[in-house]
Each structure stands twice: as structure tokens, then as C-alpha cells.
Amino acid sequence: MLNKGLEDVVVATSAICDVKGDEGRLIYRGIDIHELAERANFEEVIYLLWHGSLPTTAQLDAFKADLVAHRAVPAQVIDLMKTFPKSAQPMDVLRTAVSALAFYDADAGDNSAEANMRKAIKLTAQTATLVAAIERLRKDQPLVEPRKDLSHAANFLYMLTGSAPDEVSEKTFDIALILHADHEFNASTFTARQIVSTLADFYGAVAGACASLSGPLHGGANTAVMEMLLKISDETQVQAFIDDALATKQKIMGFGHRVYKTEDPRATHLRRMSESLGARTGQPQWYRMSQVIEKTIKDKKGLNPNVDFYSASAYYVMGIPTDLYTPIFAVSRISGWSAHILEQFANNRLIRPRAEYIGPLDVHYTPIDQRSPAPATV
Ligand SMILES: CC(C)(COP(=O)(O)OP(=O)(O)OC[C@H]1O[C@@H](n2cnc3c(N)ncnc32)[C@H](O)[C@@H]1OP(=O)(O)O)[C@@H](O)C(=O)NCCC(=O)NCCS
Questions:
Q1: Confidence (pLDDT) at 376
Q2: Distance of alpha carbon 195 from its chain centroid, rounded?
Q3: Ligand 1: which of 255, 270, 299, 326 to mutate, most ligand atoms within 8 Å of CB?
Q4: Measured from the CB, is residue 221 less than 6 Å from ligand 1?
Q5: 10 Å Cβ neighbour count for 331?
Q6: What average pLDDT does this structure show over 5-34?
Q7: Which of 70, 257, 269, 340 is catalytic?
Q8: Which whole number is the average pLDDT over 121-150?
Q9: Which DSSP category does 251 fall into?
Q10: Is the beta carbon of 310 within 6 A of some atom in ligand 1?
Q11: How many CB atoms lie within 10 A of CB 140?
Q12: Closest ligand 1 atom number to CA of residue 258
């Protein structure tokens, strides 16, 4: 049976995350995302994803201390990043830097459960540091050392901007991290699981997952959404722009989903954030434009916004550069990738699907002097 794009194909059991597409529900380890977004913090959610239950106070304190202790990135990796072109795409830099981290980790080639858990902690702590460094290096700004007293969310914003965020920004960003942490067998997570299913290493899997996330059909959509809003720029032009895009059969980034057939529950929170942050920062126009787009796409195509639609305008009014939205997705999703890599290693079987061959059969080798140019095939 052929399932193009592996649509609806179940390739493994997993106890980490459930996406109920018809009901618009997202569940981490049995807990609904709405409850986590309202009550948890990101560090608790990482612990939940990796260990299967919420931590006690003592467990959470120890876990946070472990993350904080691993925030620094080896100097060699920072030196390497300094040699990259300033114009390099942040996701490409992140992918390369993640791969290079392996050279400076004695655990890199050790696929035991203990070593993999240590790598999960290091990579989750260091991805935030790498993304902040990408932004500052390309702007020729000095790097900001991580602060031990700040949460993962606050410390990231501090390393990025040089000043600690206020409580509202920290809380908003923390919720964004919770919402993006995991999403079952999405493309980048599946990439990571597929890579380690060959018993390749954790760093290689995360580098591959970064490449997968960067595509505009996946995590790259949030940047594309903001680019579209900036291109439209004039509120009076939104309707005409979208009508024209639909008439010319263009895809509108930030809409549609392989699994959700109703509202993406993450979009519910991000819509609210986009509205309140827009009002708070005196830039309500991006939310208003997004609303017009949402209504039009819903009416004309029956499609709902996904996680990437309202995160774009929310991040924009927080002052985050557009091409950092996808790396910020990775700052969160590294937690989900890690959970899945640990689960894959714990119960591994090589992931190796089949293709339905549609090429020719019974072709014979022609000596080079007897060949005529054939039309190129893909
Ligand atoms: C997410 C996505 C890749 C899912 O893809 P999929 O399950 O393979 O669905 P398809 O791309 O085959 O789309 C099915 C139909 O809906 C249409 N469609 C899907 N998403 C659309 C969008 N964002 N804008 C306009 N039309 C869209 C397709 O054109 C197609 O129509 P057709 O059958 O008339 O050709 C797809 O919805 C998309 O490209 N969205 C935009 C990118 C995005 O926001 N990605 C982030 C996902 S969280």
C-alpha cells in the first residue's frame, strides 16, 4: 500500500505525546497542553517529556541545576561559528554548530541510556546558548554569558538581548517554549528517530532534525508568515494580497496541518499572545492583519492556523529578528527530539520503509560510444 508522505502511517508506539487531530487536542504524557500552558513552566515540561511524570520540588531543583550547569558552549565551537559568513542562515549555522559540539563531548559516541540522558541535558541547555550566539556574532556584538539565576526562558532572552526580560516577557516566552516542545512524529522528530534507529549518535540526529525543521513546510513556516505580513505591510492591502495568492494557487504559510482537522490548540494560545503583546507594545496591526488572513483562509479554504501563524506576529513584537523564529522553535523542540531519541534507543528497530519502484526494467548496459543523449529524468 502506497502512502505518499507517510500520511496516517503508524511506524512505532510512543508514550510521549498524543495529537488528536479530530478533536484539536495535544497531550504530553497524558496532560493536556492547555493545562501545561496555564500551569507549568518549561523546565517541568522537559522533565515530564523525558521522565514520564512531573518532577517533585527536589527533582525539579536538581534538574534545573543540571541544565544551568551545562549552558556554556565549548570555546572551540564559538570560534568555529566566528568563521561562518555573517549572511549564513541561522538554521544552517545551528545545524553545523550542533554537529561540531560532538567533537568536544566525551559522551558523543556512547549510546548508553546514561550517556544519552547527559547529552539530552547538554544539548537542551546549549541549543539556547547557540541560538543567542548566532544572533550576536552576526551583529558583531559581544556574547552574553549565561546567568545561573535565570530560568531557561529568561536566560535565553538575556543572552539574546543583553538584558533580563520583565516578568510578562519571560512568562510569554516560557509558554511559547512549552507549546513548541513536542508534537509526536512531526517531520524533524521522525528524522531524529530515523537517524538513531541506525544506532548513529545523538548529535547527528539533532543536526538532522535541525535540517528538517528548517524547511518552510515545517518549522520554517513561522519566518515565512512574518515575511508575508511585512510584505503586505499596509492593512488595507491584506484582503487583496490573500485573494491574489489564493487565485494563483499559492500556499499561505501558517495554515493547514497534516494531523489537525480543527483548530491547532497551540494556535489558540499564540493568537491570544499575539493580540496582547501587540497591544502592549503599541503594534496591534500585525494581529489585526493576521485576523483578516485567518478569516479569509477559513472561509475560502476551510483551513485553520497552525502553531506557526500567530507565533510570527507574537515574536515580531517581542523584537525577535524574523530569521530567528525557526531557531527559537529548535530551542524548545530539542526537548521533544531528545525525548524521542531516548525512547527510540530504549526500544530500537531500524526504520527502513520501502518505495514502489516505477522505473524501467530489463535495461542493458550500453557501451559509452554507442549511447545517444537521453532526456534527463529526475
Ligand atoms: C502543513 C502542510 C505541509 C500539510 O501538508 P499535507 O498534509 O501534505 O497537505 P497538502 O499540502 O497536500 O494540502 C492538501 C490541500 O490543501 C491545500 N493547502 C494545504 N495547506 C495550505 C495552505 N497553507 N495554503 C493554501 N492551501 C493549502 C493544498 O494546496 C491542497 O489542496 P489541493 O488538494 O487542492 O491540491 C500544508 O498544510 C502546508 O504546506 N502548510 C503551509 C506550511 C506550514 O504552515 N507549515 C507548518 C506546519 S505546522
A1: 77
A2: 17
A3: 255
A4: yes
A5: 26
A6: 97
A7: 257
A8: 98
A9: P
A10: no
A11: 7
A12: 7
Q: In the numeric block, which cell numbers belong to residue 143?
A: 556574547
Could you tell which of 251, 260, 264, 266 is best to mutate to test the pocket of ligand 1, judged by most ligand atoms within 8 Å of the CB?
251
Q: Which of 356, 367, 332 is nearest to 178 (CA)?
A: 332
- Measured in angstroms, how far is the CA atom of residue 217 from the centroid of ligand 1? 8
Q: In what order do the strands lie in the sheet with 25-28?
A: 17-20, 25-28, 31-32
**pTM for the whole structure:** 0.95
Residue 220 clears pLDDT 70, i.e. is over it:
yes
Q: 378: pLDDT confidence band, cut at 50, 70 and 90?
A: low
Residue length of the chain: 378
140 a catalytic residue: no
- Burial class of residue 225, CB neighbours in 10 A (0-12, 13-18, 19+): buried
Nearest-CA residue for ligand 1 atom 36 is: 256
Q: Report which protein residue has its CA nearest ligand 1's atom 15.
A: 256
Q: Please state the rounded mean pLDDT for residues 189-218.
A: 98
CB-based contacts of 148-154 (< 8 A; 24+ apart in sequence)? 148/68, 151/41, 151/42, 151/43, 151/64, 152/42, 152/43, 152/67, 152/125, 152/128, 152/177, 153/41, 153/42, 153/177
CB 203 within 8 A of CB 108: yes
pLDDT tens-digit series, residues 73-96: 999 999 999 999 999 999 999 999
- Local structure of residue 25 (DSSP, 8 states): E
Q: Is the CB of 333 under 6 A from ligand 1?
A: no
- Which atom in ligand 1 lies closest to the alpha carbon of residue 255? 23
